[in-house]
Amino acid sequence: MVYLKSIDAYGFKSFAEHTHVDFDNGVTAIVGPNGSGKSNITDAIKWVLGEQSAKSLRGSKMEDVIFNGSKERKKCQYAEVKLTLDNHSRKLNIDEDTITVERRLYRNGDSEYYLNKERTRLKSVIDLFLDSGLGKEAFSIISQGKVDEVLNAKPTDRRYLIEEAAGVLKYKKRKKEATHK
Ligand code: ATP
Ligand code: MG
């Protein structure tokens, strides 16, 4: 089982300062008043895993994920989130016990991804997590309102979720890539 060891965020939504959150190999509950940033943590995870839709990160454009200032604090020029994952199980296809995945976005729109500190492409991040149960569309992240959304979804969209959970999505994706060459 792959599990999330920690998150480091800077400049992402309400995380104006560098924020480090450790997770244990068990259940972690994050509690706090309304608007204190609980959902921003799951947004940060989805964002690193390659989320491209500003709307599913509850914004209108991607720049909205960058801390946009407050009375006491200037806005940040970029947002950065790093996930540290435990890969002792080797479920993710990189031969390392610990894997870090990082995404950075500048106000001019430039976006960067890193896997174990090496610059990489969005596609490599998505491929790494495809069918691992951890991808941005995976069943492992259930946001507020998601249960209703799944129940009301079109059958094709619901099937997508089931296929990701069953682990057949990567074969479908490879078939599509092969037949389009
Ligand atoms: P609830 O209990 O209502 O679900 P929550 O703890 O999940 O609340 P979030 O939705 O994570 O709260 O946090 C919302 C807060 O994040 C708001 O105060 C909002 O102003 C702040 N926020 C979101 N984007 C930015 C940004 N780009 N810059 C600064 N603050 C931001
Ligand atoms: Mg919330």
Automatic annotation (TrEMBL):
Signal peptide: none
UniProt superkingdom: Bacteria
Subcellular location per the Swiss-Prot or TrEMBL entry: Cytoplasm
Positions annotated to bind ATP: P33, N34, G35, S36, G37, K38, S39, N40
Subunit field text: Homodimer.
UniProt free text on domains: Contains large globular domains required for ATP hydrolysis at each terminus and a third globular domain forming a flexible hinge near the middle of the molecule. These domains are separated by coiled-coil structures.
Family: Belongs to the SMC family.
Function: Required for chromosome condensation and partitioning.
Designated name of the protein: Chromosome partition protein Smc
Lineage: Bacteria, Bacillati, Bacillota, Bacilli, Bacillales
Gene: smc
